[in-house]
Amino acid sequence: MPCKKCLKEPVFALISGEKLCRKCFNSYFERKIRKCIRQYGLIEKGDRIAVAISGGKDSSVLLSLLSGITRQMKNIEIFAILIDEGIRGYRPFTKKDAVNLCKKLGIKLYVYSFKKEFGMDLDRMVKKLKKGPCTICGIFRRYLLNKAARELRANKMAFGHNADDEAQSVVMNLFRSNNDAAARLGVVNGIKKDARFIPRIKPMYFMLEKEITAYAFINGISGKFVECPYAGSAYRGEIRNMLNDFELRHPGTKAGILSSFLETLPLLKENFMKEGGIGFCRKCGEPTSGEECMACRLLKELHS
Ligand code: SF4
Ligand SMILES: [Zn+2]
Ligand SMILES: [Zn+2]
Q1: Does the predicted TM-score (pTM) go above 0.90?
Q2: Mind giving me the DSSP string for 56-113?
Q3: Is the pLDDT reported for residue 118 higher than 90?
């Protein structure tokens, strides 16, 4: 069956079953992202946006798109930050891809590493601490990204999170009854407004992972797209498989989870966002809900 819009040869089938050619798929994809940016006011005049990139396909597609979109807008600056956690067999390849992409797009890239910042690679931390690799990685990466973006004078940070990531987080928080964490999800992640916390925006919130994969392939946004060796060991991996299975049998499942979640999000924020409770670490000054942030606590364990 030809492309529904222009009768050319189709390259992608949407959830609705509608088939689109290369050009129509690209315009569907870009239109949906522009709509998300407009609807949620993600990009505004005067913004200096740090795009968190990993060298993976999601953040590579995001950076390519934002580079095009912001070039047409006045008074917007973007640059990229990559966190090198120190993961053997993964990070050196993806870092190389990120460097190449930034060079191709003419975007300045800043690299911050766990080794330099915390005195140790993630691979070594995993051996020393009795915690899952993704837990350790997440705590230190969040810490370092916020610090880097602030040092580089960004007023927003953009992430390549997609509909699959977000649907997984929604379900994980539901299964674990973690309403505090759920209240921090959404297209714009916000704890209280404070110059020390850089707000996070997710322009690809409504895009499915398979759409992003197709967009990367069709538009030659290439790379090795190697998977982290620690991925899949986590609880998230099980939720991902379950949702993928459901989506296959009941197309639209992930979009349904997101739309119902977004309807309840204002209530979650009202009831579970500890606005007053979020302070700043007495040791390093980064945002935290306790007296000392998780990164400082882990650092103490690491170097004890
Ligand atoms: S899979 Fe886990 S360890 Fe690997 S980069 Fe992601 S969060 Fe870090
Ligand atoms: Zn077409
Ligand atoms: Zn701290």
Answers
A1: yes
A2: SHHHHHHHHHHHHHHHTSTT-EEEEEEEE---TTTHHHHHHHHHHHHHHHT--EEEEE
A3: yes
Q: Which residues line ligand 1 (CB under 6 A)?
A: 85, 133-134, 137-138, 228, 230-231
pLDDT at 26: 96
Radius of gyration of the chain (CA): 20
Q: What are phi and psi of 48, to 5 degrees?
A: -120, 105
| Four-way CATH pick for 40-272: 3.40.50.620, 3.90.226.10, 3.40.50.1820, 3.20.19.10 | 3.40.50.620
Q: Which ligand is nearest to the CA of 28?
A: 2
292: pLDDT strictly greater than 80 = yes
Ligand 1 binding pocket mutation candidate from 83, 127, 137 (most atoms within 8 A of CB): 137
